[in-house]
């Protein structure tokens, strides 16, 4: 696991050392850089190393083939590298190291871009071909490892994190108004966009080939779901669950491969508990597990937080060495620091928990396995159930919905801190989007602000450019790519293509690497996901109101009844409590009319109106306020 950076086609090799220095938190165990001068100008490759496989010097990067033609810098792990190594040895390749980097390099030499089809892992790759003067960049199937790309005058640059690219004089830290509008709509910037004008993320499952002209982007893989019209397989739920358990155990076993200690996140939920149960079954030593808990005073009035006692009991039953820590850090102090690590502004407070648990784990392990991805693969989010509830809601007469139920729900007080709070939230959601068409409803339910609300907040000189396109473009394109599948599979695909890489995987990578810890995600094993998409029918993912039905059947005995009974909980933080408490002063400072006018992004009067609506108590606008606060904290770090 590493940080990588480089460029091709620059008039000067300067800047590579500065790019490397910015990425040292991603690889504190070593670093290296090489430059090449050729017909395109200067090419540079740099890497900072977090040593996980083959801890010796033979695995250091940049790494070149014996003839010097190909040179690689690489961030990630290819879990099936032992089998690929054996295949390549049979073809005559010789290896000096025992890790996966040299295998990836040899695979590219043998098969070119076709090598990607053989990899099962997490990776961002850059290979320079000094004979053909081409730069090859590639990113893994789901976008688990990051790679930013910038087009320069006469060249191209890349880096694991955007802040490294800002070290090049050709790249200015300027805001892309369109990306900013999408951030306000979703809490995050949909890929391949970046908040920085002129930077973009190489999309998941794409490679880029630069040959001295405009880079060529190619999609090399995608998840394929069967058409909704395909006949059912006829396999029983128990049969599918048995095969799922076997395949999932294999995925976890492959991702435990490491030359350094491995641990795991553990919450009260099914996904992380399933990962830990499989790790415990495979390991001869106790598995180290880590949990973040919300203090009781922070959780008061909040809904959907994990019970840390459940995780502790699960760990004890599985024989783990468990550590639980409270989310009681100085949030006002951490917010600017984490904004720097995130690169793009992210308004999900789960970043705090992810960072704190990674930091605590770094004292004991270098690799953490996570349950992330289970919700998108097996239909775990409430919004998937909400689709079918909305279909029932739409059977009611329209006049009843529009003239009575929806106005009544919109005017209901929030009931925060009571058992009625979830019911009120659901009623308000139905009032807002329950009568929309399925695609529009699904996207609307994932938006914190609609297009009109975004436009009302933005300063006049930004609004036209920021709102020029459809804010939902990335989601609509994803729906189009799988429009013949069952609608549940469509929803899962859209989340895998948008929500997952742009939010969950982004902050998980940044927060773990901020603590110099590698994060692995067994639920996103490429072969496992392909099998689930093709072989597990929608009815086995969401069965009535039971989410992740087949996963529950597969893992129930391993995780125990208590985990199965747990309600869906977020990996979040008590935003509303923070905004009223320790962040109140920062909120008043960064969102003051004077500060907003000076910065020039938001209308001060519109922000003040938002604050007043929140304080009135009929709307919970804490996340919208958190968005603005997080953006201004980001702007302080990157724009000055």
What does this 3D model show about the protein?
- The chain has 640 residues and is α+β, with helices and mostly antiparallel strands.
- The strands form 3 sheets. Strands 2-3-1-9-8-10 form a 6-stranded antiparallel beta sheet.
- It folds into 3 domains: 2-219, Aminohydrolase, N-terminal nucleophile (Ntn) domain (Glutamine Phosphoribosylpyrophosphate, subunit 1, domain 1); 237-378 and 491-564, Rossmann fold; 574-640, no CATH class.
- Helix 7 packs across helix 24 (549-559).
- 46% of the residues lie in helices and 15% in strands.
- Mean pLDDT is 93; it is low at 297-303.
- The protein has 30 helices and 17 strands.
How far apart lie the N and C ends? 31 Å
Please give the oligomerization state of what you see: single chain
Beta strand count: 17
What's the gyration radius in Å?
24 Å
Biggest sheet features = 6 strands, antiparallel
Q: CATH homologous superfamily of the largest domain - what is it?
A: Aminohydrolase, N-terminal nucleophile (Ntn) domain
Helix content: 40-55%
Q: In which order are the strands of the major sheet placed?
A: 2-3-1-9-8-10
Number of domains: 3
Shape: globular
- Helix count equals 30
Structural class: alpha+beta
User: Are there runs of 5+ residues with pLDDT below 50, and where?
Assistant: 297-303
CATH class descriptor name of the largest domain: Alpha Beta
**CATH topology tier name of the largest domain:** Glutamine Phosphoribosylpyrophosphate, subunit 1, domain 1
- Please give the CATH architecture of the largest domain: 4-Layer Sandwich
The chain-level mean pLDDT equals 93
Report the portion of residues in β strands: 15-25%
């Amino acid at each position: 696991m590493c940080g990588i950076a480089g460029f091709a086609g620059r008039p000067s090799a300067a800047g590579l050392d500065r790019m490397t220095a910015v990425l040292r938190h991603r690889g504190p165990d070593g670093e290296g850089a090489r430059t090449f001068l050729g017909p395109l100008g200067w090419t540079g490759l740099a890497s900072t190393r977090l040593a996980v496989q083959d801890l010796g010097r033979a695995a250091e990067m940049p790494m070149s083939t014996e003839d010097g033609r190909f040179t690689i810098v690489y961030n990630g792990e290819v879990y099936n590298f032992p089998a690929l190594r054996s295949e390549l040895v049979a073809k005559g390749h010789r290896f000096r190291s025992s890790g996966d980097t040299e295998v990836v390099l040899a695979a590219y030499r043998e098969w070119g871009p076709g090598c990607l089809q053989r990899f099962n892992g997490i990776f961002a790759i850059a290979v320079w071909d000094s004979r053909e003067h081409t730069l090859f960049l590639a990113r893994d199937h789901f976008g688990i490892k990051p790679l930013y790309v910038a087009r320069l005058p006469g060249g191209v640059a890349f880096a694991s994190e955007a802040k490294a690219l800002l070290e090049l004089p050709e790249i200015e830290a300027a805001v892309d108004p369109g990306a900013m509008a999408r951030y306000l709509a979703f809490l995050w910037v949909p890929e391949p966009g970046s908040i920085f004008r002129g930077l973009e993320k190489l999309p998941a499952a794409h490679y880029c080939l630069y040959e001295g002209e405009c880079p060529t982007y190619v999609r090399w893989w995608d998840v394929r779901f069967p058409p909704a019209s395909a006949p059912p397989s006829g396999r029983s739920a128990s049969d599918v669950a048995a095969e799922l358990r076997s395949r999932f155990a294999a995925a976890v076993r492959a991702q435990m491969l490491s030359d350094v200690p491995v641990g795991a996140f553990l919450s009260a939920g099914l996904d992380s508990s399933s990962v830990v149960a499989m790790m415990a079954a495979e390991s001869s030593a106790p598995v180290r597990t880590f949990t973040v808990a919300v203090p009781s005073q922070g959780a008061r009035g909040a809904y959907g937080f994990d019970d840390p006692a459940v995780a502790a009991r699960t760990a004890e039953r599985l024989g783990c060495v468990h550590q639980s820590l409270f989310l009681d850090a100085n949030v006002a102090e951490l917010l600017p620091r984490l904004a720097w690590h995130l690169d793009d502004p992210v308004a999900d407070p789960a970043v705090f928990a992810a960072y704190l648990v990674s930091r605590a784990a770094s004292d004991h392990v270098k690799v953490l396995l996570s349950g992330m991805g289970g919700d998108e693969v097996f239909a775990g989010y409430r919004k998937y159930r909400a689709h079918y509830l909305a279909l029932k809601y739409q059977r009611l007469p329209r006049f009843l919905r529009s003239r009575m139920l929806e106005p009544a729900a919109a005017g209901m007080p929030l009931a925060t801190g009571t058992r009625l709070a979830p019911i009120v939230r659901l009623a308000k959601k139905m009032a807002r989007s329950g009568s929309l068409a399925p695609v529009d409803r699904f996207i609307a339910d994932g938006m914190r602000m609609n297009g009109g609300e975004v436009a009302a907040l933005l300063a006049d000189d930004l609004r036209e450019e920021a709102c020029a396109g459809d804010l939902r473009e990335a989601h609509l394109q994803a729906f189009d790519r799988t429009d013949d599948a069952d609608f549940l599979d469509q929803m899962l695909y859209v989340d895998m293509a948008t929500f997952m890489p742009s939010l969950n995987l982004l902050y998980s990578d940044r927060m773990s690497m901020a603590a110099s810890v590698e994060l692995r995600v067994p639920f996103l094993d490429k072969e496992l996901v392909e099998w689930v998409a093709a072989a597990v029918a929608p009815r086995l993912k969401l069965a009535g109101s039971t989410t992740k039905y087949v996963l529950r059947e597969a893992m129930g005995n391993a995780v125990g009844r208590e985990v199965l009974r747990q309600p869906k909980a977020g990996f979040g933080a008590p935003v509303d409590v923070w905004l009223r408490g320790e962040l109140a002063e920062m909120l008043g400072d960064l969102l003051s009319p004077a500060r907003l006018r000076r910065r020039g992004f938001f209308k001060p009067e519109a922000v003040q109106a938002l604050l007043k609506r929140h304080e009135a108590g009929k709307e919970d606008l804490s996340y919208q306020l958190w968005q603005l606060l997080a953006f201004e904290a980001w702007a302080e770090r990157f724009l000055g």
